[in-house]
Design brief:
single chain; Jelly Rolls; SH3 type barrels; 3 domains; 16-stranded mixed beta sheet
Amino acid sequence: MTKKKQKPRDKDTGKFVSSQNPVQVSEVKKKDFSILGIFLFIIVIFLLLILNNKILLNSINNESSRSQTSGESISEIAPSPTEENTVDSIKSPILDEANQIITELDSTVENLTDNQLSEVFVNPDYIGRILVQNGNVNIISKGDLESKEKLYPGKIIKNGDQIVVGEYPSYISFVLNNDNSIVVMYDNTNAQLVFNNLSNLYKIKKGKIHINLMRSSKSTDFVSQNSIVRIEKQHSALMNLSFDKGQDQFVTIDGQATIKNELSGLSLRMIKQQKLFSTNIGQLIWSLAKDFDFMIVPTNQLEVLPIEKAPAKKVISVINKIKTTPKPKITITAIKPSVPKTPKNYDKTRDYDFNTAFDIIKRESLITYLETPIMGDIPLHYFPDTDSDVVSSISGDERFIVYPIYRFGFVVIGRLGTGPLGYADVDFINFSSEDRLGKIIDISKSRFIVKN
């Protein structure tokens, strides 16, 4: 009799169990389901995060669009139907606050309109603002020839404006918007400002201008009847400019500029501490600048008297004297009455006459005279002595300034706008009145004494 194969029993329960282990299989299946659930949970969380970020981005975009359209009325922005119920509770305080902000902005704009110093928008035609103005100064806007607006610091200067400065001590200074350059226009100046994308143009009829130009992306041109002054772009310049019908004078304190004479086409580049004259006959006369060239003095510092026709007797007697004398220098020296002994220290005399005495003439506006040569050129000497070097000359048809400085038969001579140049023998000068030389001698003896 065969024995049945008995199934093993469980030690704890006493029940028969299979030789296989089903418990272990069920545990593996449970583990597989738990991993799948965790994975699905992570996916759901990730999707929720993406959705939440999208909502935040939309809200940020809405806020930025609202800030850009802040000028629009808030009452025009209506809430959506889904938000209407939730917004009702906070709608009133927000709108009240917004209305208060709009009211404050409106009052600010109204104040800016009343205050002429403030401009909300930058207009390309606004090229500068006034810094200081004094005396009789007018700005004539383009197309308005009778404009006489009240000027004040901060007032806008527009493109095309014409600036007219009256007699001394009138002047005006202004700053340019694009590069913070400073321009000062002194008495008896008439100029128009025309700016474009390539250059800043100043059309000058007459006057005196001081400029402190900074580096700019545009060139700057000062154009008169005789001359063109150009400061190239990316260059700076500190200069004094003087424009007259007879000749223009330019002094470079610092920086550089190019000067062109319109009549002859000659041009010259100036660097710092140089002086240049541009004449109405096509000349460019260059020299080094001196200390007094860096200052701009009033136009009416020199009183130029009208030229009177010389008496016929005087001209005839001088001509006869020159014709009958083979050596004019010897004869002229002989006819000088009681000429005092000349000092040995010529340097001290010249230094006093060309600095101290000249400053007194400018400061006190002493009378100077506009005269002509008797005939031919007049040599100008470095010292009041015919044996000293000739530093310049006056042509026979040229008018020149005679300063009231008399030294041993010589007087100090200068050209219009140049200051003193040298000493000239009084016998070569055609004084326009007979007593003029006597007045010069009296003024010189009483005011300009050199202690050797």
